[in-house]
Design goal:
277 residues, Metallo-beta-lactamase, Chain A, 21% helix
């Protein structure tokens, strides 16, 4: 695990005004910030989510206009402590530069941690370099943690959660995550973009909740029926389908499709849906 720091002080942003839209959030909680596959629609942003605890607020992937999206979900940008980037595709990582810039412009001084595989972190640093962020004055501290491409690799262990990652099967190096909630003893697994693979089965073993993609049975992705198979093999209690085609690309009743292979509760994830863990 490699660590990269940039020490700075408070930016000159006292004149910035940002209107927030607060929602009542009880913790621990998962907030679905986006549920679509790579082609979003008006009501379905690209897939990303937030894991909210008492001490840590963790963004999993980052797209579009992340600060506004977080505020609409009731999460203040200053409360965000960590970002996990599952892989370096635009529909999962393109919002990182805007997230960091907007937090800087709005006066953030607290450090933030960013986690991902070496492949992902190297490209994120290159991307930020293209924007010349080393020249942005008084930037808050950012730490890039490089995760090993190994099953059940340590990501973090805090008062709220223990999180591990495992490589899954996608077009580029990609991780899914397993979140163990210490307050409730519940377990959530998130597949991210992946073909059906045994790594996901092991990652989700006995999980109370499995959030699994349903982009379709194409290269690097899974159908809803295949997501159901993974949930059954892992003996998960509930299956949430995410990263599915929306708008004119929508494909019928994906919950019914998953029901062919999984007998537990099946829920279609929607933008701004909250999940208790």
């Amino acid at each position: 695990m490699q660590l990269w720091w940039r020490y700075t002080s408070r930016p000159h942003s006292s004149n910035w005004l940002f209107l927030t839209y607060r929602r009542e959030i009880t913790v621990p909680k998962i907030i679905i910030l986006g549920s679509s596959n790579a082609v979003p629609t008006k009501n379905h942003e690209n897939t990303h989510l937030a894991i909210i605890g008492e001490e840590r607020s963790i963004l999993v992937d980052c797209v579009s206009n992340p600060v506004v999206r977080l505020e609409e979900a009731g999460v203040d940008f200053n409360d965000l402590t960590d970002v996990i980037v599952t892989h370096f595709h635009p529909d999962h990582a393109s919002g990182i530069p805007l997230l960091l810039m907007d937090m800087w412009l709005m006066g953030r001084t607290k450090p933030i941690n960013v986690y991902g595989l070496h492949f992902t972190m190297d490209r994120l640093e290159d991307l930020m370099g293209f924007y010349g962020w080393a020249e942005w004055p008084n930037f808050f501290p950012v730490a890039f943690y490089r995760l090993p491409e190994a099953e059940m690799a340590f990501v973090m262990d805090c008062d709220d959660f223990k999180i591990v990652s495992s490589p899954v099967r996608h077009m580029v190096p990609t991780i899914g995550i397993r979140v163990e909630c210490k307050k409730t003893d519940k377990v959530l697994a998130y597949s991210c973009d992946t073909e059906p693979c045994e790594q996901t089965v092991r990652l989700a073993d006995g999980a109370d909740i499995l959030i699994h993609e349903a982009g379709g049975a194409t290269f690097g992705h899974s159908s809803a029926e295949q997501a159901g198979e993974i949930a059954s093999k892992a003996e998960a209690e509930k299956l949430y389908l995410i990263h599915y085609p929306t708008g004119r690309f929508a494909k019928g009743n994906i919950a019914a499709e998953a029901g062919k292979t999984f007998q537990g509760e099946i829920i279609i994830a929607k933008d701004f849906m909250t999940i208790d863990i």
